[in-house]
Amino acid sequence: MSVRVGPIAYPIGRADFLGSFFDTVPVRLGGGSRGSRFPTLAALYRDGEVSPDAAGAARDELARAEHELCQHPPTAMVWDIDRPGVLPPWGSDIAATITPLGDRFLTADGTPPALARISQRIAGCLSF
């Protein structure tokens, strides 16, 4: 999966894993309504891109969501908003090093967390 900022697309990670972030945010932080508290992130999920003009808002919402997710236990992850009982492929086996929910979105291959990669791409757009 990739995220487009203006004319440039940046690879982020697996669609299902990144989608779980975009499903967890509205369920755990937005009262179950996508876009109620994080409209720019909801638009990014829906459209797969953010305009350079909205990049600052997207970065701010992403930082706020990441901070707030860290207030929840890792078991609060939502894998699929439309099927709440579905577990991720690894089931309920959570590494002991993952203590807040925000850490649940780390990638298994040692690359930076998906959230950090999105934030870096958006911030790069703002530096032009």
SSE layout and pairing:
Blueprint: E1 2-5, E2 8-11, H1 15-29, H2 39-47, E3 49-50, H3 55-69, H4 114-126
Parallel strand pairs: 1-3
Antiparallel strand pairs: 1-2
Task: Give a brief rundown of this model.
The protein is mainly alpha-helical and 128 residues long.
Task: Offer a few descriptive terms.
41% helix, mainly alpha, 4 helices
Explained architecture:
Helices cover 41% and strands 8% of the residues. By secondary structure, it is mostly helical. The chain has one domain. The protein has a three-stranded mixed β-sheet, with helices on one face. The radius of gyration is 14 Å and the shape is globular. It starts with a strand and ends with a helix. The mean pLDDT is 78.
Order of strands, main sheet, comes to 2-1-3
Helical segment count: 4
- Helix fraction bin: 40-55%
Radius of gyration: 14 Å
Order of helices and strands: EEHHEHH
**Unreliable parts:** none
CA-CA gap between termini: 24 Å
For the secondary structure, the number of strands is 3
